[in-house]
């Protein structure tokens, strides 16, 4: 019925740590954090699905969709980002559709597919030099 004090403390610490990270992060790091949260939520949804925890699966997929729609897709600069930003928008749109299908159909394959699609993008983002002064920004 009640969660232990240590679990509540750990959850509170994690929330504070994330909030502090967000406040102190530059735009590049914020997108990095969005990718991390997205991939972690997809992994958690897969775990919940395998356990038969449908409520948790739905919550994690819903959070994943929100990260894609409001975070990653919302931060694209389609005016200055050109073809790359437009392509990312298309990938994000596709992933939202697949996540929705995974949720409705309890489809682990769709969750795996989205993770396989987004992982290389997240890795590429992590490898980018945030101090690149070329002026070519897609975000």
Helix content: over 70%
Q: What is the CATH level 1 assignment?
A: Mainly Alpha
| Beta-strand percent range | under 5%
Calculate the terminal CA-CA distance, rounded to whole Å.
44 Å
Please tell me the overall pLDDT. Answer: 84
Question: How would a crystallographer describe the biggest sheet?
Answer: none
CATH topology: Four Helix Bundle (Hemerythrin (Met), subunit A)
Tally the helices: what do you get?
A: 5
CATH architecture grouping? Up-down Bundle
Radius of gyration: 17 Å
Summed up, the domain count is: 1
If you had to describe this structure to a student in words, what would you say it looks like?
- This protein has about 140 residues and is mainly α.
- The protein has a single domain, classed as Four Helix Bundle (Hemerythrin (Met), subunit A) (Up-down Bundle), CATH 1.20.120.
- The chain has helices spanning about 5-25, 25-50, 55-70, 80-105, 110-125.
- The longest helix has 28 residues, at about 80-105.
- The model is unreliable at about 1-15 (pLDDT under 50).
Helix-strand blueprint:
Layout: H1 5-24, H2 27-51, H3 54-72, H4 78-105, H5 108-127
Helix pairs in contact: 2-3, 2-5, 3-4, 4-5
